[in-house]
């Protein structure tokens, strides 16, 4: 028998019940995914300036008007394509004196699992829009981590930026330039080398001015 608490109207509209995904919604999601996949590849290969809506649409197998319909313009598409979550909330609760090694291990996992980060890095090294986007990602998501670890609140932005230099430098040399000495290092070796550096950047006492 029908649930007496669910009216015919509610059953018809989905109100109060789990609405099934319609074929149209599934097609829309598939189209968005195809556009973003094509855009990430194009932005990574051609850079922001050279990548075109027409080329991205062709790669996705759709009409360029569909790209404009979903994302408005190239700027909007770029922002959606490189919307990166550094997953800082997934960091385990660790003692303050282990934050450096924990961050290195966390970022190694991110770079190895998320091709969007590598694509964004490639764009960021050659294009102002990509560089600005990368800066936004690391500033907004690294600052809370640095704030929790840093002994001096006024130094949080500088310490977060210094930590980012290590992680971005590692990613550039290991996953983009693929320098053999860097790619040859194991995960444990990288953590051992870089962990103490990040630890010092984030937690070591430091005077803003050199002593006379």
From TrEMBL:
Q: Name one GO molecular function term.
A: transcription cis-regulatory region binding
UniProt KW Nuclease keyword = no
| PROSITE patterns assigned | HTH_TETR_2
Annotated SUPFAM superfamilies: Homeodomain-like, Tetracyclin repressor-like, C-terminal domain
Q: Which residues bind DNA?
A: 52-71
Composition bias of kind Low complexity appears in 1-25
Could you tell me the keywords of this UniProt record? DNA-binding
UniProt-recorded name of the protein: TetR family transcriptional regulator
Organism annotation: Streptomyces actuosus
Keyword Membrane among UniProt keywords: no
Give me the ranges of the annotated region Disordered.
Answer: 1-29
Provide the HTH tetR-type domain boundaries. 29-89
Its taxonomic placement starts with: Bacteria, Bacillati, Actinomycetota, Actinomycetes, Kitasatosporales
Q: Where does the source fall among the domains of life?
A: Bacteria
